[in-house]
Amino acid sequence: MATFRHICDSVAVITLSNPPVNALSSALIQALQKALGEAIRDSAVEAIVICGDKGKFCAGADIREFNKPSQKRGPHLLLLTDLIESNKKPVVAAIEGVALGGGLELALGCHYRVAHVQARVGLPEVLLGILPAASGTQRLPRLIGIAAALTLITTGKYVPAREALKLGIVDKVVGENTVDEAIRLAKKVIGQPLGSRQLSTLPVQCPPNVEALLAEAMVKVKKQFRGAQSPQACIEAVRAAVHLPYTEGIKKEQELYQFLNATHEPRAQQYAFFAEREVAKWTLPSGASWKTVSPQPIHTAAVIGLGTMGRGIVTSLAKAKIPVVALEQDKRQLDIGSKAVMSLLDREILKMEQLGHTEATNSLGPVRFTLDYDELKDVDIVIEAVFENMALKKDIFRRLSVVCKPEAFLCTNTSGLNIDEIASVTNRPQMVIGTHFFSPAHIMKLLEVVRGCYTSSTTISTAMRLAKMLGKIGVLVGNCPSFVGNRLMRLYVEQAVFLVEEGSKPEEIDLALEDFGLAMGPFRMMDLAGLDIGWKARTEIGLTGPKLPIGTPARQRGSKRYSPLPDILCEQGRFGQKSGQGWYKYEKSGGRNAMPDPWLYNFLSEYRCIHNLKTRNITQEEVIERCLYILINQGFKVLEEGIASDPKDIDVIYNNGYGWPKHTGGPMYYASLVGLPVVLTKLEKYYEDNPDILDLKPSNFLKKLVASGTPPLKEWRSHLGSQSSKL
Ligand SMILES: CC/C=C\C=C\CC(=O)SCCNC(=O)CCNC(=O)[C@H](O)C(C)(C)COP(=O)(O)OP(=O)(O)OC[C@H]1O[C@@H](n2cnc3c(N)ncnc32)[C@H](O)[C@@H]1OP(=O)(O)O
C-alpha cells in the first residue's frame, strides 16, 4: 500500500500504491501514516521522498469510499499533511502522472515538489460537490496567491507541470527520472532551515482589492454553476484564508465541508463521475460486451463533408493524432472547409503552446483535403458528416460501399436519422454505425454511438474505442427517431413553447431553467442553433408548409397539441441569432446579446387572441416541472423500449451534451432525488390538465417503479423485465 525503503545516503522513499490511480483509500492513508512514522523515527533517515507507484503520484481521495461512514475512513489526510510539514526532516513529493485533490494536498504538505513534465496537478473537489478539505483551501493561497488559488479551486482545472511551475505550485519540472531528481533535491536540502517551506506558517499575500476579487469570483461562479453550492463554499473557504490565521481557516474549511456533505450535491456529482466511466462498459443482451469483443485498430480515417460538424470531427481526429482524409463535394466547399479546419488546428496548436508543449505542431495528425473518393480506399473508418438528408446520405453510403476496403467501418454523423435505412444500401450493413457528435465536435465530450439492427458487436467495440481515442465519452444507444438526447430534448423544448402560448414570456422560462442550472434556457438555445433547422425538418415531414393537408387545425397534429409559433417566426424571417431576431432580438445579425423583444409581446398577444388562448400566471415551479418532467418521462420510455440500457446512460448524455447541471446528477438521478411518486403525481396532474399533450402521460415503467415501492436508481434496470432491448 505505502511502502518505505532506504536509499543510499539516508533518504527514505515512500511509494503510494493503490492501483489504478493510487487513490487515498483509508487503508492507503493508514499505511502512509505508518511508513511516515517509521521514516521519521528512523535515525538513519535524514530526508524523505514520497512518490506514486506506476508513474502516478495520486488521484486524491478514493471516491468509492465517500459513502462510507467517516469514522471508518481512518486518520484524516489533514493530520498527515501537518505531520509532514512540521517534520524536521525535509520531505519532497515526486509528482508523476497526477497529483489531484487529496494527492495535491499531500504534496502541499511536503516541503518541496518536483514534477514530471507530463504531470498534471489540480484540486478538482469542486467537481465532486465538495471542497479541498485537507488544507488545500488554506495552503494553496499561501503558496500561489489568492487570484490563482481561487481559479484553481473554483474550477477544478488540471494544470500541466510547466504551468504549475510558473504558478509556483511545483519547484522543479523534469523530463525524466522524477524520483531520482527528488532524491537529489532531498539530499541537497538536508539540514537547511525549512521555515519558508512550511506553507501553513506563511502569510497570505493579499492584493489591496482582495474583497473585490472574492466578490467577482462569487458573481462568476453563481453564473457559471447556477444552483450549485460547492463553488460558493470554495470561495468562502479561500476568504477564510485571507482573514483568519491558518488553524482558524482550517476550522472554517471543515465547517464548509460538513455543510456541503449534508447536501445532495456530493452524491450527485460522484454518481455522475462514475457514470461517465461506467458507460464505456457496454453489454448487449446477447452477452457480447466491452470485455469480450475486441475493437479493430483505427490507423487512418476519412470525414465526408466539411460543414460545421465535419470541420470539428476532422479537428478531433487530428488532435487524437489519427491521419485524416477530408472530402468535400466541390472545389469551392473544399476551399472554404479546408481554411476553416486549418484555422481550428492553428487554434489547437496555440492552446498547446500556451500550455508549454514545445512540439505542438507535431502532436496533431496530418490532414489531407480532397475531392476524390478514391483517396478513401485505404482508410480504416469513414465518418460521413453531410447535412441531415436521407437521400444524400444513402447516395454517399452506396458510393462508400464500392470505394472503401471491405474491412472499413462506415459511420454516419446524424442527430436522428434511421441508421438501418442508411446501412441497408451498403454491402456491409454490419459495419455501419451512427456516431452522433455534438457541436463543436472538437470540444464537446459526448458521442452518442447508435447501434442499428445490423450493427455487429465488433463495430460497436471499434466505435466505442474511437470515442475513447478522441477523448470523448461514448454512450451506446439504440436506433429510434432522434435517438436518446434529441428525442428527450424535443419534448422539453415543445413544452416551453406551449408555456409561452399559455402566458409565459420566453425570458421567464429561460431564467427559470437557467436558475435550475441548465447552461442555457430553451429559447436562447433555439435562437443559437437556428430556428430554421427545425422548421425545415418539420416542413419536410409535412408538419407545416405545403405538405400539410388543407384544413389541419393550426394547433393540432393528429390527436396531439402542436404549436405553430416557431414556424410563424421563421415565416417572418426570424431565425434566431443568425438573422438578428428570433425569440429575442440581437444587436445585429450574428449578435449574441439576447434582448427581450417588444415586437414579440405584441405578436404573442395577437396570436393568443386569434387562437382564443387565455393567458394565466405561470409559476417558476410549473415551468420547471412541466419542462423537466416531460423530458424525464420520455427517459423512462426510452428505458422501457430498450433504447438506453441504464438510467446512467441518459444522465451521461444530458450532463455532457445538453448542459444539464451535474450537481443534480442528470435528469434520471434528479427524478430519483425528487422522488418518483412526486414525479408521477405531477405528471398525472399536468396530463389531466392537458390531455392533448400525450407525452405528459406517465410512462408504464415509471408507474411500475412506483408500484414496486420506488427502488433506488441502481436497481431500476432489474425492474425492466423482458424489455425488447434495441441494444
Ligand atoms: C481521504 C480524505 C482526504 C482528502 C480528501 C480529498 C478530496 C479528494 O481528493 S476528491 C478526489 C479528487 N480527485 C479527482 O477528482 C480525480 C478524479 N480522477 C480523474 O480525474 C481521472 O480518473 C484521472 C486520475 C485523471 C485518470 O484519468 P484516465 O486515465 O482517463 O482514467 P479514468 O478512466 O478516469 O480512471 C481510471 C480508473 O480509476 C478510477 N478512479 C480515478 N480516480 C479515482 C479516485 N479518486 N478514486 C477512486 N477511483 C478513481 C476510475 O473510476 C477508473 O476506474 P474503472 O473501474 O477503471 O472505471
UniProtKB/TrEMBL annotation:
EC number, UniProt record: 1.1.1.35, 4.2.1.17, 5.3.3.8
Chain ranges of the 3-hydroxyacyl-CoA dehydrogenase NAD binding domain: 301-479
Domain of life: Eukaryota
Main location group: other
UniProt entry keywords in alphabetical sequence: Acetylation, Fatty acid metabolism, Isomerase, Lipid metabolism, Lyase, Multifunctional enzyme, NAD, Oxidoreductase, Peroxisome
Coiled coil ranges: none
SUPFAM superfamilies reported in the protein's UniProt record: 6-phosphogluconate dehydrogenase C-terminal domain-like (SSF48179), ClpP/crotonase (SSF52096), NAD(P)-binding Rossmann-fold domains (SSF51735)
Assembly, per entry: Monomer.
Gene: EHHADH
Protein name according to UniProt: Peroxisomal bifunctional enzyme
Family: In the C-terminal section; belongs to the 3-hydroxyacyl-CoA dehydrogenase family. Belongs to the enoyl-CoA hydratase/isomerase family.
A GO term, aspect molecular function: NAD+ binding
Pfam family, one: 3HCDH
Phylogenetic classification of the source organism: Eukaryota, Metazoa, Chordata, Craniata, Vertebrata
Location of the protein in the cell: Peroxisome
